[in-house]
Design goal:
The chain is of the alpha+beta class. It is about 30% helix and about 30% strand. The chain has helices at about 35-45, 50-70, 115-120, 140-155, and strands at about 5-15, 15-25, 75-80, 80-90, 105-115, 125-130. It is flat, with a radius of gyration of 24 Å.
């Protein structure tokens, strides 16, 4: 399918006063966590010649291996996917000698996607969740309502039984 999004109004101050603009925000139509390592193992085992159990075992061990490498002070790069890296921080001190190892802490672990991977994912399709489901109908154009009623049955077939009136 693709990524389904909502539209939300955001207000902000400008030199000319308050201004409102509408933005796309992600809507999650999935159970918490989306796909699991079991789902991924099933996908990867198909056509790879490896059993689902073997792939699941590797996926289960992968976080532990990445953890050990990151704890060793190195990043982890998976070709075609991206890199896992750490960032550190500390409180500020007046003298450099006061920045001791006990004062340094991990601020975040982040994932930097491979450029080609990012590009491939960025070409996904986007679908706007019908505005008539969460905006008052008197705030929408008549042509928008008519277009949504038609598209609703095509893009969101599970909603075909709900009334958009």
């Amino acid at each position: 399918m693709g990524l389904i999004y909502f539209v939300r109004k955001k207000k902000f101050r400008t030199s000319g006063g308050m201004k409102s603009l509408y933005y796309a925000i992600q809507r999650k139509l999935q159970v918490k966590g989306g796909k699991t390592e079991r789902d991924l193992a099933k996908i990867l085992s198909q056509g790879s010649g490896r059993s689902e159990g073997d792939v699941l075992s590797i996926l289960t061990d992968l976080p532990k291996a990445i953890e050990e490498i990151l704890k060793g002070g190195e990043s982890v790069t998976i070709s075609g996917l991206g890199s896992f890296q750490t960032a550190i921080t500390s409180n500020g001190f007046e003298a450099p000698e006061d920045v001791l190892p006990s004062e340094v802490r991990l601020s975040k672990i982040y994932f930097k996607p491979d450029r080609r991977f990012f590009y491939r994912v960025s070409t996904m399709n986007f679908f706007r969740y019908p505005l008539s489901k969460y905006f008052p109908k008197n705030q929408l154009r008549a042509e928008t309502l008519a277009k949504e009623k038609k598209e609703e049955k095509e893009v969101f077939p599970e909603m075909g039984n709900e009334s958009a009136d």
